[in-house]
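Honest question from a wet-lab person: if I give you the sequences of every part of a complex, can you actually get the arrangement of the whole thing, not just the pieces? Trying it with mine:
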Amino acid sequence: MSGNIYIGVDMGGTAIKVGICDESGKLLHTYEGATGTEFGSDEVLDRMAKYVRKIVDDSPFEWDQVAGIGAGIAGFLDIPQGFVKLSANLGWRNVPVKQILEQKLGKPVTIDNDANVAALGEAWSGAGAGIPNVVCYTLGTGVGGGIIINGKIYQGFNGMAGELGHLQIVPDLEAIGCGCGQSGCLETVSSATGIIRMANDAVERGDKTTLSLVSEPITAKHVFDEARSGDEVSMRIVNRAAYYLGRSMAMLAVIVNPQRFILGGGVSKAGEILFQPIRENFKKYAPEAAQEGVEIVPAVLGNDAGVVGAAGLNLH
Amino acid sequence: MSGNIYIGVDMGGTAIKVGICDESGKLLHTYEGATGTEFGSDEVLDRMAKYVRKIVDDSPFEWDQVAGIGAGIAGFLDIPQGFVKLSANLGWRNVPVKQILEQKLGKPVTIDNDANVAALGEAWSGAGAGIPNVVCYTLGTGVGGGIIINGKIYQGFNGMAGELGHLQIVPDLEAIGCGCGQSGCLETVSSATGIIRMANDAVERGDKTTLSLVSEPITAKHVFDEARSGDEVSMRIVNRAAYYLGRSMAMLAVIVNPQRFILGGGVSKAGEILFQPIRENFKKYAPEAAQEGVEIVPAVLGNDAGVVGAAGLNLH
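Yes, you can. This is the full assembly:
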């Protein structure tokens, strides 16, 4: 078969997922193998290179068609150098990923952080396909963000652009501390962790809520389920998470003014009960001229966004 | 003389300022003539074309060397179409500026709003020269903003990117209405108008302040002068204006993450009494990783920023 192919790698703490994309961002083949984090970075990178060789060998494509390899990694990275400064879930410190992999594979290697890569995946061939400027939120344990300008990840001066989870949007009087050392960050209220915290607080202080009947540790899904069943406390928690997301988008509308906001990650699967109040608050707070034609939509690639976006790193 | 030249036009309500820049953004010649707003848009555009011809005729350059003409206009614009939807200070509605001027002058014409053009001027050959990503604030009657990414004005989907005056940054409980219809916008507290309002409020409610001894209508300069002389109420007003500017920069640091923030406009001339608390608040609220190497500096081109940036529209 002819034409270039692009390899994406999603480096998780337990599994390495590898995928082959064509030039349009279509995911053609995937392979998943154990990370082996416990054996250290040399072994992990050996495995990664092996999985990349394997997926191409097992496909109808030739190694010569591989235009480049991209990897999404959670942690603090020096992106231009392809260097991992610190990755908590891989247990890495100062690993020159790009240098090692380029030596092993003889192809250009590009790395980027997981939220940026997921954003690029959605922008390339997911919910933002064909739209040049999009802002993505990944609502999971934390709140990740990625800003795509003219189809490319926008990094900023220190690679800190699009760190939307650390927008200090909660007013001081209502703010609580964030893992980053600041307080009032968006992820303190709009991540799964934030939602679970608000739920546990409500149960512990004896609020009248059906959440107190949940027999296992409360998850964000419990809160959405109880809200859907009419529990007012749960609905308030959902509305609070949505309110700050909507207000953050109103702010982004006068800074980045994207055409589309895309919401992915586990929390976004809650659907309309979350999206509706987000849209209402965005509409209420964004200047009219900055919301005309602007859409707030769910991500569509699910867990594939990371591998697709990583593949796109060498094209975009 | 050889090489391309770039013409910039700053369209004011009373004067049209025209300038010639070289390829490095150096302003070589300027000419200023009356706008004649009272005679309507046809006459104004005739004059503008005449001033452009005149400045080139009077210079050592040939008309053939003119690579393009840019104009900065305050108002609502359709920038790609070069169309003025509404300009309050020119009294214009639906004027196809680009089309008319290209016909009159036979050269490419580009328009953009005044805050964006001032930002581009500073980024090209002012306080941001050589820096790819900068964010500019123009602190005047309102708060204007401009975001420069890779040396170009970043417009966003609706041309609303960088409308920093309408960041709703003041918490609801302390917010007052803004001309835009929202409340709590940055320009309600950090513009000259906002500073004057806070000063008049203080005097009217009988706060103990030397501002009550000012015999003429209070200006922002009075407030800075009294603050410098030790008046506590004036100092509080300055600190409030600076606080929200610093916090807005902390937000921008995790969205755009520019290398440099540039502050221009009349209010920025207050100097260190304003810049010091802005820097303190930025340092306090921005995540460390997003402030490393980031500077907050005054604009250097003064009133020339508009004409230089307008000239740059056809190069950037």
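Two things worth pointing out. Chain B has two domains: 5-121+304-312, 130-299. DSSP finds nine helices and 13 strands in chain B.
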